[in-house]
Amino acid sequence: MPTSPDTPLYNSRIFDSYLKLLRKRYPSVDTQALLAHAGMKQHEVSDPGHWFSQRQVNLFHDKLVQITGEPGIAREAGRYSASPDALGPLRSFLLGMVGPEYIFYLVNRIAPRFTRSSRCSARKTGPREVELTVAFHEGVQENPRQCENRIGFFEAAFLLFDHDFPEIEHTECIFKGGKVCRYLIRWRPSATYRLLLAQRISTLLLVGGLLADLLYNHSVLGLPLFLGLLSYLGFTLLSRHIERKALLSSLTSMRNSSERLLSQVQENFDRALAINEIGQIISTRTELSEILSSVNQVLHKRLGYGRGIVYLLDPQRNILVLRGCFGFSPEDEETVRCIEFPLSAPAPRGVLVTCFHTQQPVLVGDIEEIRGQAVPENFALISALGVRSFICAPILCEGEALGVLAVDDASREGGLLQSDLNLIQGIAPVIGISVRNAMRLANERRLSEQLRKASEHLERRVAERTSELSRAYAELEFLYDSVSHDLRTPLRVIYGYGELLLDGYGHTLDGPAREYLASIISGGERMEQTLDRMLDFSAVKSAQLTLETVDLSLMAQRILADLRITDPDREVELEIQEGVLVTGDQRLLSGVMENLLGNAWKYSALKGCTRIAFGQKDGVCYVRDNGEGFEMAQAGKLFIPFQKLHDGSRFQGHGLGLSMVLRMLERMGGRVWGEGRPGEGATFYFTLPPAETP
């Protein structure tokens, strides 16, 4: 991916070497002003995990040459990296090698520790000659001083081993039209190598002298042989001394490097263990206060941070509230609790609020840097607590900021580093997940309790309504029975006397009077039929069921045959599916079929040809006709007692038929529904449970 001028490319150890050189050889240079001009901070340069951009590097080099007046200071800084205090642990690692040439063979592994701007490769071209090639990544545009600094680093590799300066030929340079920077490095033999060579020569001379002494007069070569032997012994002792010294130095460097590496491994192990412990805390605790307390203990004991605070959003989401802290005395903790962080406060809002809003971590190397950004009262309290540097990271979950985690360590020399920021930045989202889970669990518990109370209240209301409905239903049943029985006798008296009056005195009455009497008698008979239906409707509930296999096809044929006798002149087309067998009570099923087929016969009477069909599909029985039909918007009234969807003057009925069908099917565990269109007929469907259902 192409880089930009603001992409972090260069490790802070390069510029740490510059600052150490300036403090030793240019003490008059104001390094703070130099760093400020380049947009760098002292704690960033001291942090081996920090990286700077090309823009910062260009500003740093331009200002450095300006204030020192030394155009070649970049190369000088590169050479200075060979000093004992320049590269730190990396110097011990390099000294553990046999010689400088081995550094170049591993340059592709060493270079990424310092730069991400390029790829570096080495090729041996002679006994003491290496060609190095630096190929830059897309978008990288270094400046010539970085090339000089790189040459200084190559020279430092030889200074580490007390070699003379090598001969470096810059055969191809990107700043002179080349595609890469290519360096041809040659070096002379080291003092150790020359001493070893002298030892080998003296050995050859000594062997030659001994052979000559054996062949010629012994007295002639006695003194030269003695001198040659002394030379051989001297060179041997000296070379052994130098080798032993170099070996001890190499072993010491390797030991120091190993100790530092073990220390770093232990530190990484502690951090990994801390993250693992935080994960266990999340998986074993559900209360937010317990989670935050345990996380604070891990940060304090396992990672060694002196103090820390956790601020979370309050329920109104307009202020950050302290929810946990560690490392504070009781008095200091009360002081911290007094600090408020309103999220909607005007500028200056403070680092914590800014961190919360931007959702970006912040490393403050020196609190004086944020004096202008902080609320004056809060800054005074923080200063009184002895805070020198601190890290704050947003506590995030699913892209939403829930709070801020901040740590500091007043006892740590040099302050907090980028590696600490990376660690806290990795821990904060883990805390965010646990906080969100704890909040959700608390909400679920609260909602569960509310639902439980609502359910109990609903159950009480349902029980009360059910009891009321049962009483009302029982009263309605009693009313049906009472009305049906109590009205039957006076009703018979009314239309019975009407019949007597019509039979005994009808010949003396005029036509209208006889019609009035006939209407009284007919109304009484219909009323008696309605009462009978009401008794049947009431009797359905208490009827004893006898479940058996019933052939609805034969039942439909019988009912329709009886209906055809009532109107033999009507043109009728019947479609009855054979073998429709169901399990139910035969008496109730007979009532269901009589009502449904009777309605189909009645409401299709005005059609030129009556078409009625009965059958079963996918376990659902149906009765279909081509009669008057109905509006589906009125379908809810079909099964309500005494509700009629059609004009009573055209179609006689008492409005109880379909309500009785519904009750009878429900009594057998089935259900019924209807579909229709005005003028196009209707279809009624009903189901019954399988035969094995009791």
TrEMBL record:
The organism that produces this protein has a lineage beginning with:
Bacteria, Pseudomonadati, Thermodesulfobacteriota, Desulfuromonadia, Geobacterales
Q: Which organism is it from?
A: Geomonas anaerohicana
Specify the protein name: histidine kinase
Report any Pfam family annotated for this entry: HisKA
User: Gene3D superfamilies of this UniProt entry?
Assistant: 1.10.287.130, 3.30.450.40, Histidine kinase-like ATPase, C-terminal domain (3.30.565.10)
Stated EC number for the protein is: 2.7.13.3
Name the InterPro entries for this protein: BphY/WalK/GraS-like, GAF, GAF-like_dom_sf, HATPase_C_sf, HATPase_dom, His_kinase_dom, HisK_dim/P_dom, HisK_dim/P_sf
The protein's UniProt keywords, in alphabetical order, are: Kinase, Phosphoprotein, Transferase
- Fetch the SUPFAM superfamilies from UniProt: ATPase domain of HSP90 chaperone/DNA topoisomerase II/histidine kinase (SSF55874), GAF domain-like (SSF55781), Homodimeric domain of signal transducing histidine kinase (SSF47384)
Highest taxon of source: Bacteria
Keyword Transferase found: yes
The residues covered by the Histidine kinase domain are: 482-692
| Top-level enzyme category | transferase
What does it catalyze?
ATP + protein L-histidine = ADP + protein N-phospho-L-histidine
